[in-house]
## 1
Amino acid sequence: MLGPPGAGKGTQASRLARERGIPKISTGDIFRQAIADGTPLGLKAKVTMARGQLVADDIVIGIVRERLAQPDAAPGFVLDGFPRTLVQAWALDEVVVERGSTPLIVVDVVVPEHELVRRLAGRRICASCGANADAFSGNGAPPAHCDACGGVLVQRPDDEEQVVRERLKVYHRDTRPLVEYYRQRPTFRFVNGFQSPDRVHQEIVAMTDSAAALAARPAAPTKHVERPL
Ligand code: AMP
């Protein structure tokens, strides 16, 4: 699942994973958990995340490789927040080849920038279970407690305005080029993320069904993409 911060990738990835009965793998969640647990990985990631920058490729790639090797990911997986750089995308392509699995299905969630800023400023997450709650989804007053578990809602430190600006800059510089990297593939899709979450979900289900049908066909010759040196 590709898209800028605030596009709704996390929410949509969770819904799709639930629907398909496969795990959602969110690198951001893995780092937040490591920070909460105070592990060496968490200590390394904390400063980088607080600045809105990206954790080093070799660290992220190692974590994703390990996670994808777990038995529950054997039938498939939904990736949220990975890949975020071309180096990560190349590593993911290598994993797909090594697994001998069907091609990746890539969905780019498109949302206008003014809406991203609005959503990120209003986003609250549950301090207990990490679920997302949109502060603007109710009748004006931000909700105080999590719908799922009743936990206290807090703002993610990297959703503060200055950090959001840096995250969007990093997105345009490092992650946006992945759209060009993937868009020639027959299993690449765009979805309009500026609609209700239910509508976005329905469209993602339909487009991943059609892409999966294509992906299951015997491989047709595809255009060779050169890695830049
Ligand atoms: P997210 O929850 O996906 O918005 O990720 C939160 C933060 O975790 C990002 O701003 C990065 O600092 C870090 N992070 C998550 N995924 C990656 C990734 N694939 N590569 C580098 N850093 C990442």
## 2
Amino acid sequence: MTKSPMLIALCILLLSSCQVQENDRFPNIVVIFTDDLGYGDIGVFGHPTIATPHLDRMASEGLKFTQFYSGASVCTPSRAALLTGRLPIRSGMASSQTRVLFPFSTSGLPASEITIAEMVKERGYATGIFGKWHLGHLPQFLPTAHGFDEYFGVPYSNDMRPTPESRWVAAQNYPPLPLLENDSLIEESPDQRLLTKRYTEKAIDFMTRHSEKPFFLYVPHTFPHIPLYASSDFEGKSARGLYGDVVEELDWSVGEILQAIRDLKLEEETLVIFTSDNGPWLVMNEEGGSAGLLREGKGSTWEGGMREPTIAWWPGTIAAGKVTQSLATMMDILPTAAELCEWQIPEDRTFDGVSLLPIFNDTQAEVREVVFYYLGAELFAVRKGPWKLHFKTLTPYVGQQAESHDPPLLYHLLHDPSELQNIAEDHPDMVQNLRTVAQEHLNSFVPPPSELEKIDTALYNGSKSYPAFY
Ligand code: MG
């Protein structure tokens, strides 16, 4: 008996839809986030003496972004941008006065914000963060209040500990650095030499325990933020000195996490993104990193402050050894994750990201054309295609005021990645074009009041001691 072609086609269709359902598991998402690592601080981004074989391998098996941007040039707003997919100015996590959260801060990431963790949790993911949070240390702002099932780490920067030698009263009186598990204090002044190792162990344990269902793992390392610490396995080993030791231990951690994913046979179901929160802390001299050929570093809207060494890895989906010059930002990670777990992005707020899947799948060469560079609550610069226009610039951490530029400074970042040749006079039309892009952006929303400016002044001026939570 001959079967009709229609029937055969129907059978094939049914079989293939069963196949899709059998393999239907949302991919795991892993974000490894370093603190103050510069664009030029790892081998695959050109560092001559810091050895990063695991990151180099990750890039050779995955995709290297050469023009990937942070949402800010310092810790707190950068983390807000990553987790909310929105410019920090939209969530109240930007301030030109109080650039980050401090132990005397009384606020944090608002509950109304939707984090990647909250988003994927709705889609059945297990969620864990092992590392530095820095989006509010009071209980209502901790990771466990923002969609993470599990948390182990420090609530803010590792230099926010008692510093009697400081001329700043607030810093003299900081409480001992807290180490938290979920929302409980488990140690004061943990041995910082062991933090990278402990975060790594916790991250691998988390993936192992949740290997049967999709997970979102966020590993925001404490380092190479200053003060620098490496474990005895790494201390004194790098040709670059202590900074190199610290980065080489972070590289080891990346290798451990990727190997654990391979051991769990999850490599074809796991997207891993490695990036940094902001540029290198250059005024720290040898203890700070390097932005390579990019100008300036942390705290600045020159390229070195906000362009990050970024690698995406997903064997079987991302072709090995690719390099992209597409513009991308850390705010693009949320929409990428949303597409992966089929989450409907709500329309009640503006998101500033676009999905990176077309880059991963190689179906599009570019996903975005414009990047905004905020310093605190102010728009300092805008990029469109290869062109970048600076309205203001600042040499950070040396006490200078920001300098206004009228006419603004114009650079062609593909020809001049170090931003050395201001060519505004030669391209008045481009100056006008970028001015319009900036103005339309600024006219399109009214920022909420800043959460970062909410502080306890008695803690700040040392007239009150820190409460027992610490
Ligand atoms: Mg940082």
